[in-house]
Design brief:
The complex is a heterodimer. By secondary structure, chain A is mostly helical. Helix content of chain A is about 75%, strand content about 0%. Chain B is mostly helical. Chain B has a two-stranded antiparallel ribbon with strand order 1-2. In chain B, helix 1 crosses helix 2, helix 1 packs across helix 4 and helix 2 crosses helix 3. Classes of the chains: A mainly alpha, B mainly alpha.
């Protein structure tokens, strides 16, 4: 299967719109890509090469971030007081990893989305503060773990529904990307599902054992979630940059290492009181 | 050449409308026409052109049609509508005024209306 065919297949899978418009887009892209091949006198080697010009298949004609103002302007203020906090759990670590190990921009789709979200640094910081405030208050008041999870995740479900609704009702010229929904904005949906699992583990372990073990558990779940995200990305996108996988593997190890070091430091601090 | 995306975001629709004001063109031809008219100074990314064409079409500025010739691939061509010409005229006036104002400002001269 040629790179163009593979790319168009991926594009077809990712575009969620009327059949007529989708076929029209596919045909237009086919003509464009074939013309480029004729111009350069050789076929495209891979999806990655095409994606360097067009973006990943799910990106063509689709900019998820443009839909964000939609629900920013329509959602009630209180929704943003408890904005998707779990989002930060995974991506906070990913930001750090990718700051040191930047991708080559082709297979780096997930992080390009995450970075675009991270551009609004103040908003991210706000998310982090609110997330930890909720966890802190919930633990201080002795709430049961499932209540903590509900407090954090339920609003995110609402946001997700709003987000999906905004995509569905978008004009036809803004094709809806199913892949984008799964992986866009830093793996929004994937991150959400995985983060719920991470929070369940964290809340359960935190209630029954040490903070150290809780943090280690968190780190391991995060590492696992990254593996899952990469696997999903690979399965949905076909070819990704060969540099992407090692980078994410480093990210997984880094996630676990940070959790272990932080956990040990906090444990030590708690067990060995200050001499002053 | 790729200019900052913040600058190009507002300028790209004007360039596309201008390119299509002269002839009915397909997406790739629009890109090439813009490059040609700007002496390769402005290069609109391939991934940008189709969402923009669809948006302008939805706004009524363009109308697209499929064109097929024997022995050739069929191609989707776009042409300006009356509404598109009106938009182009308005954008052109605004852009020309802006360029004059900024140029005058940068050169330290007062703009005379």
């Amino acid at each position: 299967m040629s790179a163009i065919t593979a790319y168009l297949s991926a594009l077809k899978r990712s575009l969620w719109m009327s059949a007529a418009r989708r076929q029209s887009t596919i045909d237009e892209m086919q003509d464009h890509l074939t013309s480029l091949e004729e111009e350069q006198g050789r076929p495209f080697d891979s999806i990655a090469e095409i994606a360097q010009r067009f973006g990943a298949p799910g990106d063509v004609g689709c900019d998820l971030n443009r839909s964000i103002p939609w629900y920013q302007s329509r959602a009630p203020w209180w929704l943003f007081a408890i904005w998707p906090c779990t989002f930060v759990l995974l991506n906070g670590t990913m930001y750090v990893v990718h700051a040191f190990f930047p991708g080559d921009g082709t297979g780096d789709f997930i992080m390009s989305r995450a970075r675009s979200m991270a551009q609004d640094g103040a908003f991210q910081l706000y998310e982090i503060v609110i997330m930890f405030l909720i966890i802190f208050l919930a633990l201080r008041r002795g709430l049961r773990p499932f209540l903590i999870i509900a407090a954090i995740c339920l609003p995110q479900v609402i946001v997700k529904v709003l987000h999906t609704y905004s995509m569905i009702t978008a004009p036809y010229h803004r094709p809806i990307s199913l892949v984008g929904l799964l992986l866009g904005n830093g793996g929004f949906l994937t991150t959400y599902v995985i983060s719920v699992l991470a929070l369940i583990a964290l809340a359960q372990v935190w209630r029954t054992t040490s903070l150290y073990r809780a943090l280690v558990t968190w780190g391991l779940v995060l590492a696992g979630s990254q593996a899952f995200t990469v696997a999903l990305a690979l399965s949905l996108r076909g070819q990704m940059s060969t540099r992407q996988l090692p980078i994410d593997c480093i990210g997984m190890v880094f996630s676990a290492a940070v959790a272990v070091i932080l956990g040990r430091a906090l444990l030590h601090r708690r067990l060995v009181p200050s001499q002053s | 050449m790729r200019y900052p995306s913040e600058v190009m975001k507002g300028l790209t629709p004007l360039l596309v409308l201008q390119a299509l004001s002269e002839a009915e063109l397909g997406g790739l031809s629009v890109l090439r026409r813009v490059r040609q008219l700007t002496s390769d100074q402005i290069d609109i990314p391939d991934g940008t052109i189709y969402p923009l064409l669809y948006r302008l079409e939805a706004q009524g500025a363009l109308v697209g049609r499929w064109h097929a010739e024997p022995g050739k691939r069929r191609q989707r061509l776009y042409r300006l509508t009356d509404r598109g010409r009106t938009m182009l005229a308005a954008d052109r006036t605004a852009w020309t005024g802006l360029v004059a104002a900024v140029s005058g400002f940068l050169s330290g001269k007062e703009l005379r209306s």
